[in-house]
Amino acid sequence: MLVVRELTKVFGGVRAVDDLSFNVKSGTIHSIIGPNGAGKTTLINMITGIYKVTSGEIYLKKEGVSSGDDIEEIVHGKRENITNKPIHSLVHKGVCRTFQHLEICSSMSALENILLGFHRFLNKNFFLSCINSKKIKEDEKRYKDEALELLKLFGLEGIADKEAGSLPYGVLKKLEIIRALATKPRLILLDEPVAGLNPKETAEISSIIREVADSGISIILVEHDMKMVMQISDEITVVNFGKKIASGTPKEVANNEEVIKAYLGTKHER
Amino acid sequence: MNELFQLLLSGITVGFIYALVGMGFTVIYNSSGIINFSQGEFVMAGGMSAVFLLKYGTPFWLAFLLSIFITALLGLLLWKLIDLSKERSVISMIILTLGYSIALRGLASVVFDKELHTLPSFVGDGSFDIWGATLTYQAFLVIVVSVIIVILLYLFFKKTKTGKAMVATSDNIDSAKLMGIDIKKILMLNFTISAVIASVGGLLLAPITSTNYEVGVMLGLKGFSAAVIGGLSQPFGAVVGGLILGVLESLVAGYISSEYKDAVAFIALLGILFFMPGGIFSNLKAKRV
Amino acid sequence: MEKIKNIKDILFLTAILLILPLFFKNDFQYEIAILSILNAIICIGLNLLIGYAGQISLGHGAFAGLGAYISAILVGNYGVSAPLALLISLTFIAIFAFVISKPILKLEGHYLAMATLGVGVIIYIALNAESEITGGPDGMGVEIFKVFGYEFDTNIKWYVLVSVLLLISIIAIKNLINSPFGRVLRGIHDSTSAVSSVGADVSRYKSYVFVISVVIAALAGSLYGFFSGFISPSEASFNRSIELVVMVVFGGIGRIYGGLIGAVILTILPQFLTSFEDYQTLIYGVIIIFVMMFMPKGVVSLFDRRSSAGS
Fold first, then answer.
1. Is B66 buried (19+), middle (13-18) or exposed (0-12) by CB count in 10 A?
2. Vertex B143: Cα angle to B141 and B147 (nearest 5)
3. Which CATH number is correct for A1-94+185-198+218-270, 3.30.420.40, 3.40.50.1000, 3.40.50.300, 3.40.190.10?
4. ipTM of this model?
5. For residue B187, what pLDDT is reported?
6. Which of A124, A145, A181, A186 to probe by mutation at the C interface, max C CB count within 10 Å?
7. Residue A123 with chain C: CB contacts under 8 Å
8. How many percent of chain C have pLDDT more than 90?
9. Of A96, A97, A161, the CB nearest to C310
């Protein structure tokens, strides 16, 4: 689904991300882990166009193209270069992200936050909006129902009309994921989706993520919660000082000497 | 050449006034995050109070001290109003200080009047002749006093305990609280200092240009531009900003057009905001939206 | 932010607009009403920018004034018909606003406010300075508003015209706020990252709203020029810009009727204060201070029952 090639980001004299390459297979959960300051957030910000890359490329599989993405080769007809493209244009290609520090619209209701997620399917014409044309009316009704369905799937239909700012942190973490799902993505980047959550909430989100991946959506997961990462990941890339130091299945990575060395002394079990 | 030098001198003189007004802005902004849109009215209050106190026969020295004192009280009053406000959002504080500016202007038009007034020069009507250009004693006084104020402020912030506490507060208000610094007192002090500096500026300026109840509007806006040019987070950036502004204005008025003289401050303001929002001393840190 | 679902309020407003003239005893009251409504229209657009998209503008008076001058000059000096003059004026202003919106809207908070202030003052100074075209500080006369031969020469005709425009504005903004476009605006106010992450180009929307609010201001400003038969640079002054922002905040930021209520109250208020003569400005200032201190959400908030956002 996504191929990251020799990605590098230099801030001043610091190489925050150094010649990083990895491959995300469709429908899998690919986790990025590493000690604090290893460059994980910088990496996500580069993929989503918030930081301009210093060098390297990012390729996304084109929509409707058949599988064949376990090859490292860039097959031009099948992949699109999305390096440095801003997140709002990526959404229309089926890429979406959540945020480590929640980005929720607190003055809107939970339902409206999800309706925001449906943005790319809705009619945004200013003049038609002013006259509340039939199409807009119909769209609103249809997507309100869809949004409610999404909430029901996660057992959250009760909070639909509550002001998002009044909802608890754990609920909002889920809400962001639901909003991401509303964009009907092929690939979601989750930036520390369980940060600050208790074990019960973590387990809930963990299984949500697994279900989403099982439905065919690819996931890039950045997390510190080692237990969760080991549990649900299909593949893990370990990063330290901006460089890739290991990659493979959870088992392979757990036994990797470099990884153990990198984490020595740091608390990685919750 | 003489003309150029003359323009430079008058530009520097006015520039120091802008610097004083601008410093008032940065002092308040750095400690409270509030842009005080009534700063110009503090300048007006200084000059106008002196004019009317003198009219009623108050001796010079007393009139000045009282003017500064009155303006200081106005500064404290503003602090109190802000302190009592329910909410301190960016927009409500902008409107509140704008309202205060309108109220002060209204008050001035009633307590004083709407006429133009001048103060007599504090040091007589003589002038220096420097390289063919004239520098009046009053203008010279403006420069000297302004420099003294800047130096005093600098020493205050760097050397005194209270001053250092103020710097700490503007850097990080939470750690300042943790260190036991009384934030309220700091803010009160900041508003007072701001008002005092502004009123001194008004007093110095009044003999040179005439003063009236509305003079604060443009002065405030220009002082504010000076502060932004120098960088709002640099406490002494306003000095450089003010001087640059004063000189630029003077040159434009002299060589290009006197009608667009006032526009210089705002064109400079826009230029800085678009290209270097942190001021001329900042590294180019684009504000990523 | 709120959604008033039913159209009861529109009917109520229409009724008030219809009944009000019956109480007018003289021309002056008509004029105040027309002025209030024109201010309200500007404030509706301004509220869209400040209240919903969360972008502060301290320069809208200048745009209203600039629109007025361009329309007046086209009609008066070049003999252009009024509707065409309006069209040209608004198009020019829209392009101008769009061009400056790009760099300005990259700024936030205080810096954005300052930039709009700067633009506004520069426009004001230019209007004063270019006295050959604009008549300078003394202002210029404006011809009568003629649309395809129909002259708007009585207060009643103006009242009907602006009332209709007001109703259109309110209906439009109600629909807009509840539409996907409106949701993006409200989202921008809370979190631009969230809005980007769902596929909306934030800077494009910000520009859009800025241009819309400026065009509305220019339209109302132009109409004011035609109505009063005279305009001067004070229409574009910093004081005027502040007046407008104060109306919006006073009425209620981000509230559909905030602009209307604020504009009406603050246009009528000075009339009640004329008996205080010299104290007018002072009282006006004090009122603003106290409302900001104790009713920062605006007068509209006095009518709030406890409600949660959304449907």
1. middle
2. 115
3. 3.40.50.300
4. 0.85
5. 85
6. A124
7. 180
8. 44
9. A161
